[in-house]
Prior knowledge:
This protein is an all-alpha fold.
Amino acid sequence: MDDYLSESEQVEQVKAWLRANVPWILAGIAVGGLAIVGWRWWQSHTDQLDLQAGAEYQQVLQAFNAGDKSRGLALVGDLERDHAGSPYTDQANLAAARVLVETNELDRAAQHLEAVERESHDPELATIARLRLARVQISLGKPDEALATLGAPLNGAFALRYHEVRGDAYFAKGQKAAALDEYRAARLAAGPTLAENDVLNLKIHDLTGATGRAAPQPSAASGAGAAGGTSGAGAAGAAGDVTHSPHTASSR
Length: 252
């Protein structure tokens, strides 16, 4: 039909289309521009918060390393208030738990570990907190709570520690056969390269002497796939585990 319109009529048709659609086009451009500006601002704001959280976390470590526990714990509280959900806050809580364990304030240590387990967005940090919380609960004389905290089995890099802590919990309950089974599972999970774990082997030796059963040596085939990666090991250095007798908590 447009082929039969005069040139002036075609121009008027184009003008009419522009009058109808240009405001919407301009509005779309404006919205898109605002979205880009807003995203860049948010990214900059997030980066700034991360830098602040990192600086405050370093202050926490400096306070703890200097032996100023009160200041360190106060700084951890500031991080929790100002940077909830930050991995630096998780690491600070793990560090606080380590310091509180060293001063035998186990109930307070458990609170910091529970915060990480409950609120961390990092599954590995949450798992580390879960394992350490179970150790603290065993040291508090609450092995049933420790078993509940451990929950479902862990695989990969955490399997060794999971089974060992379960063994400690069963030993604390007086269930030595169940403890021995868990220690053996831990040694199998360790794989050939980590099987010579002095503390774990001592626990197994003590229990095999008590039960009269010989402990089997892990084979390369059974342990090869159980050790998993080492991704949790770096994060684990943020706080130590509870260490008492060979049957409670070895520090790793």
